[in-house]
Input
Amino acid sequence: MKIKFKNILTHITLIIVCVLSLIPLLWLLSTALKGRSENIFAYPPVFIPKDFTFDNFKEVLRLVPIGRYVLNSFIVAFVTVILNIILSALAAYPLARMEFKGKKIAFFSILATIMVPFQTIMLPVYIITLKLHLTDNYSMLAGYLGLILPFAVNAFGIFLLRQAFLTIPKEIEESAVIDGCNSFQIFYKLLLPMIKPQLALLAIFTFIGSWGEFLWPSIVLTDEKLFTLTIGINNLSSAFSADYRLVAAGSIISIVPIIVFFLALQKYFISGTTEGAVKG
Output
């Protein structure tokens, strides 16, 4: 009886937290669907629009090249995800499965960078980007590379995949060596397929972080053709006298790809968060 009551209490708490988390999103959607005749700042707040309309979405699509912004964001996010998976896996594999001098020092040095906010190293990274000519002043490709390379790998990804590799029994690797596999074949054909949940988890977090990145693109981009969705949506508030209906509609459009990407990989999400998180 006590266990049943505890489960009910847990579920009620989770439902309350879920509802509280959804309130900002619901308010954003409500604002995007309200017509011009309705006061979006009314008190008490009205969640269900009385003047229901999709005109705000149509207006956003008409006023800004939203398709171009989405394409730019997708290119940057997709390439960033691919590079993170490849580079994090290549760095995590020797840290988990090989023995060499300075291994622990290297691992803890990488791990320590998690505590360093990007804002503190942003200036030197920007100077390096300028010196390497990785800005849209030189070419579109350079502009894309300037957006992608500073986030191509991070300590979180290396740590996550290292922990995942540690959960795989060494006997499996030893059997592959007996069968004649070299280190790269063991890594690519044997171990990587066994950590698909963690790879999917890393892909989800990287995609969300890259898709929603605002500060770095706003610094390095000058050509509107390369603007990502976050920069384009931000321009709505300045170019059109802060019409929050349009800003809300644009924000909803920007959220949709994240939801689709998460739903596509959700079957790996739970297992990815629980496997490989304890062994060290």
Observations:
- The radius of gyration is 23 Å.
- The chain has a mean pLDDT of 83.
- DSSP finds 13 helices and no strands in the chain.
